[in-house]
Model the fold of this input.
Amino acid sequence: MTVANVKEFLKANGVSHIVIPHPLAFTATSVAGAAHIPGKEMAKTVVVNLDGRPALAVLPADRKVDLERLRRATGATTIELTNEREFTTDFPGCEVGAMPPFGNLYGLEVFVDPHLAADPEIAFNAGTHTELIRMSYKDFERLVKPKLVAM
Done:
């Protein structure tokens, strides 16, 4: 899913959004800084394995995922972070580590930290390490139907 495809998906669903180019950055906090987005609005997408099945944990850039808390909240028996080498082909058209939080486009369940839901807007990597998309959280919620889970 390239930036163009994400934009097409948003347009097809009537979602107003902006694409923000920024200098090359690899971590969510450095992307937020480069794009002048508050860390609490910048979503980082973390791939986790819940009982052996991949899922997306989406949380503010300035927070770290609490795996044990997420495991308990989801009812999973086991949880682990997925190594980037394990999902390089799971997000076609995306640079490794820059996938958007649209698990619905990849057949993945999405768990969102309530801190992101509390903000009217969300910004996230758009498939590259040089562009992000900013849109309303309500539209994101409508399209993705994430489960709110404190993590």
